[in-house]
Amino acid sequence: MSDHEMLTWLQEAAGQNYGNYINGEWKPAEGGRTFQIVHAAEHERVLGHFADSDAADVNRAVEAADAAFKSWSAVPGPERGAILLRFADLLELDRDEVAFRLSAEQGKTIAESRGEVARAAKEARFAAGEASRILGETAPSERRNVRNMVVRYPIGVVAAIAPWNFPVVTPVRKIAPALAYGCTVVFKPASATPWASARLMELFTEAGVPNGVVNMVTGGGSRVGDPLTKHPRVKGISFTGSTDLGLRIQQIAAERLVRTQLELGGKNAAVVLNYADLAGAAKQIVSAAFACSGQRCTSISRVVVLKSQAEKLTEALLQEIKGLRVGPAWESGIHMGPLVNKEQLESVQRYVRLGKEEGAKLLYGGEVLNSGTYQTGAYMEPALFVKVTEEMTIAREEIFGPVLTVIEADTKEDALRIANATEYGLAASVFTDELSDANEFASRLEAGMVHINHGTASEAHMPFGGVKRSGFGAFSIGSTNQQFYTENKVIYTLY
User: Fold this and answer.
1) What is residue 406's three-state secondary structure?
2) Looking at the whole model, is its pTM more than 0.90?
3) pLDDT in tens, 8-63
4) Residue 183 bears catalytic tag
5) Selection from 301, 269, 266 nearest residue 404 by Cα
6) One of 263, 320, 398, 408 is an active-site residue; which one?
7) CB-based contacts of 369: which residues, under 8 Å, 6+ apart?
8) Which residue of the set 297, 320, 398, 408 is catalytic?
């Protein structure tokens, strides 16, 4: 289907009613309430009406997941994996529809949305393979005729809570491994972006996931998220979102001794140390900083560079940023779409104002775009700040928008200290031609993921997570997921 045909379909499909997906059926909220979402680039266009749920709806979903757990966990792992492989195939076949829904509700470019769908299919395929690799261990006994084993079993019902910035890959990142390891799921999408998630539910069912194994409940955090995380039959909580909300979820989970997998905020640094290819570094940094309009937890938001290369690197960054085109998601040649909504735009603009008030120099951009094509969406120019010091607000707090700061360092040790001078520890990049510097910074940077001579893009089979206030619990995506979705059982056999 061409992009023009997809746009026509989008206009026809928008405005429908969607309930909660519970036990294989679409059901309205028990209270009858609904909420609507609008097009990220055309705020006057309603994309859909969704169930505004509460604790009663959450309870129905958890009961369905709990009832399905016994039979689903008994399905052999390779069979569960085969279903996930079918889901990945269906997701790829449905790529255009899912991507257009994603771009419409979230605002990212259609190229980014198609890439997100493709990445979700890759992660589902990796999870499918993991269903055949739920490995325990054996150990020799200290007694004769005794065999000792450690076997891993699924934990039960998992609450999967996803953010609005990646409404396709993040749900799949949580649901696919849960199913692979034999768990069942109650999924809460972000209230700003439930449209693509609704299609995911249909694709899971088409792939052969039995009723009740995957359920979706929509609505606000206090009305849905709280009763979901507090429900006594929920045995694990996988959450991606802000650090403040993650801390609250952790407190709730601690009261019930429920395990958590938290992917939280970031203030990611790119450290540049005597690197010859500054143009190449700038290209990598700008791509990592402004993809998804900077609304990624792994976005590079700080550049820490030795003073000897600061001027040349800043010029290279400036040229790259000037080449970025801002506009509607499916317009040809667009690099950066609108922010998700006007509330997020105002939040980012507050940081732009703070940066200038605290003495940083706004070298480029930062202005709101609100005329012509831009008047119906939350658009702004990508911003580049220089003369930034580590004490400034824009150097410390997660902005979650298209704002990049440059901080100069006197020495390599100073650069390391500045890079680590944040409460976050998700991702970091280091650009250097020196192998010794690459190894030292990889070891000493306080981040869960370190990238050498490239941006902060992760891969579909590698563990993903952070340290400090950027994460808690088992890393997601890779083999480390087993630590969250399964628990140990030690078995002694006398023969």
Assistant:
1) strand
2) yes
3) 776 777 788 999 999 999 999 999 999 999 999 988 889 999 999 999 999 999 99
4) no
5) 301
6) 263
7) 326, 379, 380, 381
8) 297
